[in-house]
Design goal:
The complex is a heterotrimer. Chain A has 14 helices and four strands. Chain A is mostly helical. Chain A has a single domain, classed as ABC transporter involved in vitamin B12 uptake, BtuC (Orthogonal Bundle), CATH 1.10.3470. Chain B is α/β, with parallel strands linked by helices. Helices cover 42% and strands 22% of the residues of chain B. By secondary structure, chain C is mainly alpha-helical. Helix content of chain C is 72%, strand content 2%. Chain C contains eleven helices and two strands. The chains are: A mainly alpha, B alpha/beta, C mainly alpha. Chains in contact: A-B, A-C, B-C. Chains A and B meet through helix 7, helix 8 and helix 9 of A and helix 2, helix 3, helix 4, helix 5 and helix 6 of B. The complex binds adenosine-5'-triphosphate and magnesium ion (MG). Magnesium ion (MG) binds next to helix 1 of chain B.
Chain lengths: 313, 263, 290
């Protein structure tokens, strides 16, 4: 029996997940790994929308921001438990996607790009401007997560929690791919007319995956807020949206493993670049350009092509 | 004679002032091969686009099994048993040959989101069944050996047959085929000929657009001739071939060839 | 009433800048289908280079010329080193490349300049002129007049020169243009160069009014993109109209509704319009052929 991409992805991720705490020398490194898992969760969701269904979103950080601010604002303004707040954030993010999804997803190409971009910016503007509610550009504190009396703390704890959530997210995403809806999404990516004629409700399929991607992003946002115990509007800004898109593209559009690899690169890289001090931004821009030029097909599909055929499909 | 399963009544459409179709009607019955012929730009593909719900006509109606389906979107028409292929191939190029046909099974699959996400045993069972059915259909069109190849790796003629297999996967009552033999060599055309006849024998109404007159004259039960968006003639192959207007407007150099073919 | 007029003046001034940015988007898009998000950085360079050259003692006209040269060189470099090597990549990849380029340009500008807001003196003094009860800055007239001249010059270039015709041919059909011997790579390089110049001019004209800093490019690019899409991508007239409309609405919203959400206007408008007209205001509504 051949090793499917599905099994390879799960195995490789599990191996990395289990081995990293043994390999990483300090809690700083564990914190970076935790950030990777969180960003990867959002990227895995975005990959369903972009890689699988071929629908670009340049505003995905908006949904991320909703999740992140939910865990800050829920406890502060509504007295909600952080966990319940996170849940509310997921629901809110999913509902927003459901509401705007149908008209937005009718758009194609650059029109879809500008509409999603606008959506993301609007969320960011609200988070940035409603100072009384959100604390504005300075950000806002997030209370500590307490699960049934257990105060969740420590780099290693968060490493395992976020990694487990990512594992669940990856499993669900892989399951979706190998289902009628997953095939429908890949089909409409290649030819919408052929998909429609084959009986696929294209509008509904796109909407479902858009809502799912929004929920993934919101969950990632909530985890980031709870982990950092602080959020700023930057989590929802345009640059973050672009980072998420870049993660999906660098890793390889349509590859769940690729989304994780892309998230790892774009999360670790800036940490490494801090040694360049003033040149940090310039180097980041340069790296993005170079990655896109030389790894256009994405890292994971690029590597898979090198393996003997049929080993990884 | 049975009632028509697919019918167009006085259909017309314009594109920016150009009347691409005007007052076109036809009716096809189960088990029949109904051909639509006409010179380039006559409006054959446009008629297919209207019947399959991709374009909305400015005038006229489309009836499927006697019901007015004029405003229905393609996926609902597919659910009612209407499928088609495309003149300019519409293949899912990033998927394998087998997966292309599996997509065609969409309507016959249980599509619940939660079972899919949780990968319940029912989903796995269904995936296996879909895969098996898709393999049968690939065997039917002679592509079983290429099942796991990327669709983009197939030659043109094979892609034409892949589209037929994908359309058949939906188990249509009406199948619209837009130039299935275009770009195919003699052997492949022979193969397509056999496929179409078999499909019609199974009770499907096949509506065929094709430029290969030998093929059309050989397998059609009925022929509609379009010219400049209007009906020029209609009838059995023999009637159409004998129609002087058709010969003048369209058949021309094909006429002798067609007469020869029918011997 | 005079208050309304006041808002109209300021709206048109800002709108002219959006229009020029949108025009830059359109020019490059038509030559290549690339959406160049580095467009806003050309505006930033126009303002910042002029500021710093002027501060170093260079006379203002010369400083402005230098800024244009820098922006054109930057545009050509983006094309040569970022777009050309990625030829054939898909639209999303190209978008990310241009965003990478904009981060790079901004990053380099941060090193060379500083993070403060700057301006230089207005070209014809700072005293407002009274018009029908409202007052207008002389520099606003410079912006509006400058934008009009740029649009007219571009139009003449496209209609009357051989090179301009090559650009239009490339926009209409790239393959056909190549077949008749047009060097489409050169045309695209030209589009980047001209977009750089237009962006820089916009930055130079508007800096005395709105001030500039190394970070002004991002939001300008996003709003310029929205303006270009509002008019229907690829349509130069639509781009200019889209820019002016956005500028006007923004000023009116800031004046009568809330200045906090001034920046939201462009995006609310573009989303609302696309919900109703998926091809933008002036986009062709074609039935997709299959
Ligand atoms: N989406 C569209 N927009 C504009 N014009 C169209 C569109 N679809 C078809 N047409 C026009 O309608 C007319 C009929 O075209 P159609 O494709 O139906 O012809 P056809 O009979 O299929 O020709 P062929 O044998 O070449 O396939 C042509 O003039 C064509 O240009
Ligand atoms: Mg046709």
């Amino acid at each position: 029996m051949r090793v499917s991409a599905r099994h390879a992805t799960l195995l490789l991720f599990l191996a990395a997940f289990a081995a990293l705490p043994l390999l990483l020398p300090s809690s700083f490194h564990l914190r970076v790994a935790t950030l990777v898992w969180i960003q990867a969760l959002a990227a895995v969701g975005l990959n369903l929308l972009m890689g699988l269904a071929g629908q670009v979103s340049l505003g995905h950080a908006g949904f991320f921001g909703i999740g992140a601010y939910a865990v800050a604002l829920g406890p502060r303004h509504l007295g909600l438990d952080p966990l319940l707040s996170a849940l509310a954030g997921l629901v809110l993010s999913g509902l927003l996607a459901l509401l705007v999804g149908r008209p937005i997803l009718r758009l194609r190409g650059h029109y879809l790009a500008v509409a999603t971009l606008g959506l993301g910016i609007l969320v960011w503007l609200v988070l940035n401007s409603e100072v009384a509610l959100t604390g504005g550009p300075d950000g806002i504190q997030v209370p500590r997560l307490v699960l049934f009396g257990w105060r969740v703390a420590g780099a290693e704890t968060w490493y395992w929690i976020t990694g487990a959530v990512l594992l669940l997210g990856v499993w669900l995403a892989l399951n979706l791919e190998d289902s009628p809806l997953g095939r429908a999404l890949r089909a409409l990516h290649d030819s919408e007319v052929a998909a429609r004629v084959a009986g696929i409700d294209v509008a509904r399929s796109k909407l479902v995956v858009f809502v799912m991607a929004a929920i993934y992003a919101a969950l990632a946002g909530s985890l980031l807020g709870l982990f950092n115990r602080f959020v700023t509007p930057q989590v929802a800004d345009f640059l973050h949206s672009i980072e998420l898109v870049t993660m999906v593209v660098i890793g390889g559009m349509g590859s769940t493993l690729g989304a994780i690899v892309g998230a790892a690169i774009l999360t670790v890289l800036p940490q490494a670049l801090t040694v360049f001090h003033d040149y940090e931004h310039a180097v980041l821009g340069l790296m993005i350009i170079l990655f896109m030029i030389f790894l256009r097909q994405g890292i994971v599909p690029g590597l898979a092509a090198l393996l003997p055929r049929r080993a990884v499909a | 004679m049975s009632t028509p399963i697919i019918e167009a009544r006085g259909v017309g459409i314009s594109f920016g002032g150009v009347r691409a179709l005007d007052d076109v009607s036809f009716a096809a019955r189960a088990g029949e091969v109904f051909s639509i012929i006409g010179p380039n730009g006559a409006g054959k593909t446009t008629l297919f686009n209207i019947v399959s719900g991709l374009y909305r006509p400015d005038s006229g109606k489309v009836l499927l099994a006697g019901e007015d389906v004029t405003a229905l979107p393609p996926h609902l028409l597919a659910a009612r048993g209407l499928c088609r292929t495309f003149q300019n191939l519409q293949i899912f190029l990033r998927m394998t040959v087998l997966e292309n046909v599996m997509v065609g099974r969409h309507l016959h699959e249980e599509r619940g989101l939660i079972p899919a996400l949780l990968r319940l045993p029912s989903v796995l069972r269904q995936n296996r069944a879909t895969r098996a059915r898709a393999r049968e259909l690939l065997a039917f069109v002679g592509l079983e050996k290429r099942a796991d190849d990327p669709a983009g790796a197939l030659p043109y003629g094979a892609l034409k047959r892949l589209e037929i297999a994908r359309a058949l996967a939906a188990e249509p009552k009406v199948l619209l085929l837009d130039e299935p033999a275009a770009g195919c060599n003699a052997v492949e055309t022979e193969e397509i000929d056999r496929l179409i006849v078999t499909i019609a024998e199974r009770g499907v109404a096949v509506v065929l657009v094709e430029h290969d007159m030998k093929l059309v004259m050989r397998i059609s039960t009925h022929i509609l001739v379009l010219n400049h968006g209007r009906i020029l003639a209609e009838g059995t192959p023999a009637e159409v071939r004998a129609n002087p207007e058709v010969v003048a407007a369209y058949l021309g150099r094909h006429a002798a060839e067609a007469a020869h073919a029918s011997g | 009433m005079d208050q309304l007029l006041q808002f109209v003046f300021s709206g048109l001034t800002v709108g002219a800048v959006y229009a020029l940015v949108a025009l830059g988007f359109t020019l490059i898009y038509n030559a290549s289908d690339v959406i160049n998000f580095a467009q806003g950085e050309f505006v930033m360079l126009g303002g910042m280079v002029t500021v710093f050259a002027h501060a170093a003692g260079v006379p203002l006209p010369l400083a402005a010329l230098l800024a244009i040269v820098v922006a054109v060189a930057t545009g050509l470099a983006v094309h040569r080193f970022a777009i050309e090597p990625a030829r054939g990549a898909n639209a999303v990849t190209l978008i990310i490349i241009t965003i990478g380029a904009s981060i790079l340009i901004r990053g380099l500008a941060q090193i060379m300049f500083d993070k403060q807001f700057h301006r230089f003196p207005a070209f014809s003094g700072e005293d407002p002129i009274a018009v029908l009860g409202a007052s207008i800055l002389p520099q606003s007239l410079w912006v509006l007049g400058g934008a009009a001249v740029i649009v007219a010059a571009l139009w003449l270039f496209m209609e009357r020169t051989l090179l301009g015709k090559a650009v239009r041919a490339t926009a209409a059909n790239r393959l056909a243009a190549r077949l008749v011997g047009i060097d489409t790579t050169l045309v695209l390089a030209l589009a980047f160069g001209v977009s750089g110049a237009i962006g820089a001019l916009a930055g130079i004209l508007v800096t005395p009014i709105t001030l500039t800093s190394v970070t002004v490019g991002t939001l300008l690019a996003l709003k310029g993109f929205a303006a270009a899409m509002l008019g229907g991508i690829g349509n130069p007239v639509g781009a200019v109209a889209g820019g002016l409309v956005l500028g006007l609405l923004e000023a009116l919203a800031a004046g009568f509704l809330s200045s906090t959400y001034k920046d939201a206007v462009a995006f609310v408008v573009i989303i609302a319009v696309l919900f109703v007209l998926p091809q933008g205001l002036f986009g062709k509504r074609a039935v997709e052929r299959v």
